[in-house]
Amino acid sequence: MSDAIELIIPNMAEYHLRNPSLQLKGEERARVVRFGGTYECEHSVFWTDAPRVLLLPQGWSQAWFDDIHKALDLAAPPVVSPRMRSGLLVDDLLHDGAAQNALRQLVSGYDVVKLTMVGPTAETYLLAALVSGWGHEVELDSVPEDAFWASLYLDSKVSCLDLARQLPAMRVAPGVVVGNWVELTGALRAMVARHGRVIARTLFGVAGDGSRVVTDAPGDVDAFLDHASGDSFFAFPILIQEFVEHAAGVGCPAADILVGPDGVEDVVLCALTVEHGYSFRSVDVGEGALPPVWGERLRAAALEVGEAARQLGYVGWMCIDCVAGADDQLYITEINARRSGSLHAGGLLRFWGAEKELTLSAHFMLPVLEGTSYEEHIRPVFQRLWDAGVKAYPTSIRALGWTDPIIAVIAAAPTADGAQAIIAEIRDSIYAVAGTPGQR
């Protein structure tokens, strides 16, 4: 055996479902399993160009996979796709002997197997033990099992409130944490009377699910309570904070942070686009994602939060989501103790060695008309761009067969405006040949 190989594990769905405090049910749970457990997994194709084996849930397109690697001038890695039993990638692998045997053969020539994942779950430690039993040294790119608590703790929105009492750069909006319906009702009425608009958020949400803005408009508090009572994301405790007005033209700053055993090793700047004040839609990634003054503030906060996490025993990728306030202050809204959804953009920047030169714009839910196909409508649009040397890619297409189909796309340019313009061109070109959603 020689050298090392990465086992790429896009375990987004089981990461979101890992916390025992979050007991999603029905449609809310099914949506997380389908979206995070299949659609978002395809972004992991772009995480790294290192020697690797990729875990992907069944249903990926071979034509798309081959096109992506040809466009990137990369050898396509082998893929293992366990039989879909639960829709949770690692759990399905642990219950599929044939997939385990295929994986064992693919890593057999390597001394070290590096588990590269979204974030740690109980199942990832079982997988590490399994691979170790095959005779390999196993390296985790996240916390060891005895520090798993730190990942759970940091991922809770309460951690922001705790760290804000300790860190100078950690500013949070004023708020209260409530533990039952009586407290929630009373606190909402008191907070909206004081601030006019608040945001109510559970400690563990997913891309805006588990958050909602509530105003002092007549009936709005009652409408929120009716909504929350039927939405399993809204489990107690619930954090209610003053809604921070967003600075115009900035987006919501965010940072991917690589925490090593001796300190912060990397910070990748991002700017999120959100709807309704909390629902995530797209992200610009790179040095050009934010105006310089906001980039400096964000980097200082990222270094401070990353060091605080390291002192708790945390290592690996994490991210912080923020609001650029209209009062010219940076507010941190949450910590995600995992790879963010935008880290495929960071992977491309590192692969190209263009961290300082390019900005990427990643759009995760570009709607397309029912009947749009990759081969007939999407591939020709991207092929023209590739022939012209444009760095743009469809990063997930498996939702083409869903009701209300969507695709995910990413584009790179020297500026964020330039990358967004390429995305707009891609959208318009697809609509020109396949039709515009909502027109039938």
TrEMBL record:
<keyword id="KW-0547">Nucleotide-binding</keyword>
<dbReference type="GO" id="GO:0005524">
    <property type="term" value="F:ATP binding"/>
</dbReference>
<dbReference type="GO" id="GO:0046872">
    <property type="term" value="F:metal ion binding"/>
</dbReference>
<protein>
    <recommendedName>
        <fullName>ATP-grasp domain-containing protein</fullName>
    </recommendedName>
</protein>
<keyword id="KW-0067">ATP-binding</keyword>
<feature type="domain" description="ATP-grasp">
    <location>
        <begin position="162"/>
        <end position="369"/>
    </location>
</feature>
<dbReference type="InterPro" id="IPR011761">
    <property type="entry name" value="ATP-grasp"/>
</dbReference>
